[in-house]
Amino acid sequence: MSQVMIYPADYDHVRQAVDRAFEMFPLKITGKKILIKPNVLRASEAQEGIVTHPAVLRAVVDKVAEMSPASLVVGDNPGLFNYGDNEECFRKTGLMEAARGYYENIGNASEQRAFNPDFMPEVSVSSAVLNADILISLPKFKTHGLTVITGAVKNSYGILPGAQKARLHKAAGSPERFHEVIVEVFGLRAPDLFIMDAVVGMEGNGPASPDLRDIGLIMASDNGVALDAVMAGMMGLEPGRLRFLQKAREMGLGTYDLDQIRMEGEFRTLPDYKVPPLGGEAMLDNPAVQEMLASKTVLIPRVDPELCTGCGTCVEQCPAGALSLKDDLPRVDTGLCVTCFCCQEMCPEKAIALQ
Ligand code: SF4
Ligand code: SF4
After folding, report:
1. What confidence tens digit (pLDDT) does each residue in 328-342 have?
2. How close are the terminal C-alpha atoms of the chain, in Å?
3. 196 or 79, greater pLDDT
């Protein structure tokens, strides 16, 4: 039976929860190569809640360093075209300091692996991920406009360096297929332990929404599917209606059935948790709803002109070439847009929502 730990914490007191996670899910770390992968979506301030909080990374690094690994690396592949700004993302978020000198740019070396040819025949995966004896994932408790939630499974999307993340978004072509892509990536190398930052969670139009929620928890598991199912349940969602969890179960990667998951700690549904405006309904498994959405609705990014500074980041990051700047405001070509949400993820001003 899968197990999930739910442990009260704040950012000044994370270590106790981390110690309990390692007791519940023991790992033989001595002499092993360890990679710790926080969620570093993009350069942002820690208090924006977009990335794993540095206090969580610091506590995990300290714990693992005390356990005598042969080597310890902290790294991630932020963003969509990240070759140049990996260090900057870690520095700005405070994760560089929290990595205690163990940071490495894991985007610098990668190896090809066979992938589902429906999307791409091969992908390159960071060598640090493939060479690690033990992979520890530090996801964040967040919503996501495309996948409804982004937790343990989606954090593994960052094992792919560079622009192929954007290419895969484009190859998926639809939100539903993107659910499948993230599970395929997760299955390339499922992490051995997940310690989730649920001290402050994100609601609304994640994964870079301004709506934060004090939750006061660290959650952990050795199974990412079970952990995401519990997170979904706490957000008031029915886990079995999320396509990526269905797909993960089909691939034998874990269960989303809350009756099959033993929880240590208090499971509670967070009242009125705001899920993405479309994601909450659009990703359900009702074929009639899916068909209606596919045939009668068009999802397009909308820019809030009050928030947009005309920086052009979204135009640069769009994998479909669907955005251009006109009068300092991004305009979308709906014929080219593949509703991948990359522009929303990358906008530093949180000025884009898909409508
Ligand atoms: S990234 Fe955001 S702020 Fe920059 S141009 Fe696009 S919408 Fe405007
Ligand atoms: S406009 Fe935005 S949502 Fe559409 S393809 Fe480009 S990045 Fe993706």
Report:
1. 999 999 888 887 778
2. 40
3. 196
- What is the dihedral angle through the alpha carbons of 167, 168, 174, 180, rounded to the nearest 10 degrees? 180
Is residue 223 a part of any domain in this protein? Answer: yes
Band of residue 206 on the pLDDT scale cut at 50, 70, 90: confident
CA nearest ligand 2 atom 4, residue: 337
What is the rounded CA–CA span in Å between residue 140 and residue 149? 10
Tokens 């934060």 sit on residue = 212
- Nearest residue to 308 (alpha-carbon basis) of 352, 341, 339: 352
299 CB less than 6 Å from ligand 2? no
Whether residue 276 is found in the same domain as residue 343: no
From 257, 282, 307, give the residue that closes a domain.
282
Residue 210: left if φ>0, alpha if ψ -120 to 50, beta else—which one? alpha
Q: Indicate if 203 and 317 belong to the same structural domain.
A: no
- Is 69 contained in some domain? yes
For 34-44, how does the pLDDT look when each residue is reduced to its tens digit (9 = 90+)?
999 999 998 89
**Whether the CB of 339 sits within 6 Å of ligand 2:** yes
Question: Residue 289: what pLDDT?
Answer: 54
* pLDDT tens-digit series, residues 24-33: 999 999 999 9
Residue nearest to atom 3 of ligand 2 (CA): 339
For residue 306, report the distance from its CA to the centre of ligand 2, in Å. 20
In the structure, what pLDDT confidence band is assigned to residue 280 with cuts at 50, 70 and 90? very low
Residues 269 and 349 in one domain: no
**Ligand 1 pocket mutation pick from 303, 323, 325 by most atoms within 8 angstroms of CB:** 303
Same domain as 215, residue 108: yes
Domain assignment of residue 290, yes or no: no
Alpha helices in 257-337 (DSSP H): 279-282, 287-296, 313-317
Ligand 2 binding pocket mutation candidate from 332, 345, 354 (most atoms within 8 A of CB): 332
Total domain count, the chain: 2
Q: Across all residues in the chain, what is the average pLDDT?
A: 91
Flag whether 238 is in a domain. yes
What's the CA-to-centroid distance between 54 and ligand 1, angstroms? 26
Domain that holds residue 212: 2-282
